[in-house]
Amino acid sequence: MLGGSPFNSSDPPESKSAVQLRVEREVDALLGEVVARDVPFLGACYGIGTLGTHLGGVVDRTYGEPVSAVEVSLTEEGRRDPLLAGVPERFGAFVGHKEACRELPPGAVLLASSATCPVQMFRVRQNVYATQFHPELDVDGLVARARIYQHAGYFPPDELDQVVALAEAAEVHEPARVLANFVARYG
């Protein structure tokens, strides 16, 4: 599993720190092994950026989403995918990202989308998955993340209370099933 990060895959190379460049090289090498061997993998947020970039997709800032809850819709393939078993065709999910996968990598299967971000989840081969939404976050997790990243450009810092209130009012329960299904299938 690969979750969020302070890094963005689409940052211009000249703006990346030595640490970010090292992390990207190491993650890229690891993803080469993961994809080649079809090792069970679930990347969320930064995970979709790194996997999408590794596989030749387009990751940029076209479909960034503010910290919020959005309605995600499963595609026909998504409705049949075992990682989405028991997940309704439409469900609420927490997002908050500056970049997103604008174009699927070659050979990837689109599993979920939203009105504000067309690539919310995809699969490569049989066991390699990535989500733009955060299946690991509940309300408390999103609020903690919003407080940590208050001054990181995901939303105007003076809107923290509004972001927290919207998160607390959101109906987000289904994304955790993605994690449960991943554990049940591969654990």
Describe the structure in your own words:
35% of the residues lie in helices and 23% in strands. The chain has helices at residues 18-37, 46-54, 76-80, 139-148, 160-169, 175-186, and strands at residues 41-44, 58-60, 65-74, 90-97, 100-103, 109-114, 121-124, 128-131. The chain starts with 17 loop residues before the first helix and ends with a helix. The protein is globular and about 45 Å long. It has 187 residues and is an alpha+beta fold. The protein has one domain: Class I glutamine amidotransferase (GATase) domain (Rossmann fold, 3-Layer(aba) Sandwich), CATH 3.40.50. The model has no long low-confidence stretch (mean pLDDT 95).
Q: Can you tell me the CATH class?
A: Alpha Beta
The CATH topology label is Rossmann fold
Question: In terms of structural class, how would the helical and strand content be classed?
Answer: alpha+beta
Order of helical and strand elements: HEHEEHEEEEEHHH
Helical segment count:
6
Q: Would you report the number of β strands?
A: 8
Q: Quick one: overall form?
A: globular
CATH superfamily: Class I glutamine amidotransferase (GATase) domain
What CATH architecture do you see? 3-Layer(aba) Sandwich
**Overall pLDDT level:** 95
Strand content: 15-25%
Helical content band: 25-40%
Alpha-carbon Rg, integer: 16 Å
How many separate structural domains? Answer: 1
Oligomeric state = single chain
Spatially, the strands of the biggest sheet line up as 1-8-7-6-3-4
- In whole angstroms, the N-to-C terminal distance is 12 Å
